[in-house]
């Protein structure tokens, strides 16, 4: 895979318009802990994308023990001028099964929070609420997830794992995600907690996927054109397996290192763009 310097450009989020009728909404994966305070630039950008003062943003908390988490994000969005912000806390799967079919009607953006990706999966996956989010996102509603909520956005998510740079067969556990996007694996606290090995192992199980590892206070804004733009103060590690020539897991050596030949890795910061369809990174001008 090669890296372009200037030709490839995503649509600027500063001047982004509402998606065309029938276009999928943005999918936004935000790294860091669950707190709102460090993420002002990212939250402001999401609010603008949803329509600014005219937007209706629904904050959804699922399986979280922190009751104040949603209130913090609600205050932040109101500070950015969003007049309509609603918060729903789904404590268990039964809450999601009995939700109204039109509970997200008129919502411009969903902001998903949670403290544990496993609890998010157990609470939300394949429920009527998850199906509503998927249908509305396919029609143009934007969806963001922070921390565990970011990992939960794709079809398959990293549920748990161990630290370390080298991939090993027993280093990662996978679980069903929200199914908003295929061929993508997302991990958070990536470089700080040394999670490259578990990302690589997840990609051996999903050989056509792209992996993105998020630093704190850093977000990937993925548009309907499959172009990923970086917003925030940290970096995003992109691991591309499209040219992978070899990987092998020995069934009798679960703790042994796994070889992977033909990987491509990019480190992106704000102002960089990654085209997930073309497998090309660029510097946006």
TrEMBL record:
Q: Which Pfam families match?
A: Peptidase_S51
MF terms per GO, please? carboxypeptidase activity; peptidyl-dipeptidase activity
- Does the keyword Hydrolase belong to this entry? yes
EC number(s) stated in the UniProt entry for this protein = 3.4.15.6
Q: Which family does it belong to?
A: Belongs to the peptidase S51 family.
Role played: Exopeptidase that catalyzes the hydrolytic cleavage of multi-L-arginyl-poly-L-aspartic acid (cyanophycin; a water-insoluble reserve polymer) into aspartate-arginine dipeptides.
Q: Which NCBIfam families match?
A: cyanophycinase
Q: State the protein's name.
A: Cyanophycinase
């Amino acid at each position: 895979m090669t890296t372009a310097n200037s030709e490839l450009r995503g649509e600027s989020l500063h001047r982004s318009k509402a998606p065309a009728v029938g276009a999928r909404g943005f999918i936004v994966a935000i790294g860091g802990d669950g707190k709102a305070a460090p993420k002002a630039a990212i939250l402001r950008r999401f609010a603008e994308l949803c329509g600014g003062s005219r937007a209706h943003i629904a904050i959804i908390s699922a399986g979280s023990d922190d009751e104040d988490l949603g209130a913090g994000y609600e205050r932040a969005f109101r500070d950015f001028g969003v007049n309509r912000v609603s918060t729903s806390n789904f404590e268990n799967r039964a809450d999601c099964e009995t939700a109204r079919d039109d509970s997200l009607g008129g919502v411009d953006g969903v902001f998903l929070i949670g403290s544990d990706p496993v609890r998010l999966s157990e609470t939300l996956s394949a429920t009527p609420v998850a199906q509503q989010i998927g249908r509305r996102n396919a029609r143009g509603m934007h969806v963001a997830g922070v921390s565990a909520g970011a990992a939960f956005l794709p079809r398959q998510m990293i549920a748990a794992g161990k630290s370390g740079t080298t991939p090993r067969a027993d280093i990662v556990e996978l679980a069903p995600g929200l199914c908003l996007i295929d061929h993508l694996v997302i991990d958070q606290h990536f470089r700080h907690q040394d999670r490259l090995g578990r990302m690589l192992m997840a990609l051996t199980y999903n050989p056509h996927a792209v992996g993105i590892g998020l630093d704190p206070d850093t977000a990937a804004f993925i548009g309907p054109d499959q172009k990923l733009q970086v917003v925030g103060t940290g970096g995003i590690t992109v691991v591309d397996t499209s040219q992978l020539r070899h990987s092998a897991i020995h069934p009798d050596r679960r703790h042994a290192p796994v070889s992977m030949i033909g990987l491509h890795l990019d480190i992106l910061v704000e102002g960089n763009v990654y085209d997930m369809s073309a497998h090309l990174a660029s510097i946006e001008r």
